[in-house]
Structures are given as structure tokens and as C-alpha cells.
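ingest -> validate -> predict -> emit
validate: passed (alphabet ok, no gaps, 208 aa)
predict: started
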Amino acid sequence: VAILTGLPITGDAIIDSSRKPEDGWGPLIQERLGFNMPTTTPVEGVGHPPLNAGQVSIPWLVDHIQLEVNIGLDTPEDQVERYARVYLIALVGGFLFPDKSNKWIQGMWFPMLLGDWDEIGRKSWGSAVLAGIYRELCTCSRLGAKQAGGAMFILQLWAWEHLPFLAPQDPREFWLPDDELRFVANPPYGFKTGTRDGGHAVALSSHY
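emit:
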């Protein structure tokens, strides 16, 4: 996890020690991000309001920060900070710790991601991502489970490295024949490249 993501594996443990405020997460979001999150207007295609039962819609946040903030050299520092915090929320909720829908982030993250910058940097994010993957694997191994959340791209890359029969043998399978600079639709996150020696791949290349 540390090698693939560059996330720190030392520092303070990430634990859910927060409690949902009596008035919900809306006031904290309003204070730090400047958004008045509606609780009655459904999110397009989801059928729930952007702020719903302790969850916040990541697409709603991203869309609104893009409408309100156009980052440039003369952008005020507070607007840059707001943009950075929404980016962190999208990164954590949509990539490192996504739920099965990949659209919602739990309110438990907001006291941390909207808090002190130095505190955020002192957390052991890599360890938490690995723990999250283990938890999701345990969950999806239960009878009747059909989906899993978490940073599955790490599991995919691990599988392609340790289970060679799963990995594409020729990266050219994923190039369009008339244009070597474009991928076909929905290419894999990573695939083997290089020559093979004794049945083992020499190099692993990751593409996003």
C-alpha cells in the first residue's frame, strides 16, 4: 500500500471517535466549505438529498466547488483551502475508502478532513487503507454478499502481480490499433509489461 499509493504508514491511528452533532454535519460543512447543504432536494439519479442520514454526496460537493471556485494565481487563500478540502473529501470517500455506491462519504470523516491541516498530515493513512481493504474482504466473504467497497484497485494490482494467470500477457491488447496514444474503453488499472523469464513478469505498469 505504501509503495503503490505513497501514503504514510506511520503516525496516529485513524479511528472513528466522532459523534454526529445534534444538529447534524450541515453547520460544520457550512462553516468550513461555505455550502448550505439541502436536506430535502434529491441528488440527480440517487433519490436522496445531498445531506442524508449522516452521509454526504461526493458528486454534489464536487459539482458545487467547481461552480463556485475557479482556481488561479489571484484566488484568495480561503477559497483555495475550500477547494483542497473538497478534493480531500472526494479522495477519501471516492477512492481510498469508497462505499459500494462510490457516491457517499460518511460523516465520521468530516471532523478530521475539515479540521487542522497538521493533524490530517500526522495520520497513518496507508495503514487505514489496508485495514479498510481487509474489512471489506471479510464483509464480502459472507453468504449473500454481492459487492465490496474499499480501495479495490490495490487488491487488483496485488492479484495481477501474485496470480499471473489473471494478468493480461500483452499490453497491446488494450491499445486501439489505429492510435498508440489512446486506450480502449475501460482499460484495466494495471497490467504486466516487459519480457517474461521463467514464467514471471519482469515489470508491472499501472495506468489510471
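Strands lie at 51-52, 55-57, 104-106, 175-176, 179-183, 190-197, 200-206.
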